[in-house]
């Protein structure tokens, strides 16, 4: 048996803050919201995706943000995305370039750490 692919990443969020999740993940990161299956809607949270990238935000109460564990998203214009995030009140933090990639970290509205990576040309 072999693992074939990553299906999705699950992050936690506090209850009742779906509008902030939509503003960040759909509005700033340009991930389309996907409707949650009917049996899961009552739990709250949001699902987002673009191509092979899928992020599920599930409600956790009490909530504790992921400060170290994080997803890393490959992007095609890191500087433009970092500027858009900063203008919306989500400044990025530069980190050491690795493996021919530039990367920054940003916190989502709930304090979860997100890494953004762009291959250096």
TrEMBL record:
User: Which Pfam families does the annotation name?
Assistant: Glyoxalase
InterPro entries reported in the protein's UniProt record: Glyas_Bleomycin-R_OHBP_Dase, Glyas_Fos-R_dOase_dom, VOC_core
VOC domain: from which residue to which, for each copy? Answer: 5-119
> What name goes with this protein?
Glyoxalase
Look up and give the organism this protein is from: Lichenibacterium minor
């Amino acid at each position: 048996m072999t693992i074939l692919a990553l299906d999705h990443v699950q992050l936690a969020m506090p209850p009742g803050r779906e509008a902030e999740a939509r503003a960040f993940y759909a509005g700033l990161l340009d991930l389309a919201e996907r409707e949650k299956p009917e049996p899961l809607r009552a739990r709250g949270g949001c699902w987002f995706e673009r191509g092979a990238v899928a992020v599920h935000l599930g409600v956790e109460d009490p909530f504790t943000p992921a400060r170290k564990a994080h997803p890393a998203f490959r992007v095609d214009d890191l500087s433009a995305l970092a500027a858009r995030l900063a203008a919306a009140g989500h400044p990025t933090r530069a980190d050491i370039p690795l493996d021919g990639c530039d990367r920054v970290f940003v916190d989502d509205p709930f304090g979860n750490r997100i890494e953004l990576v762009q291959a250096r040309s």
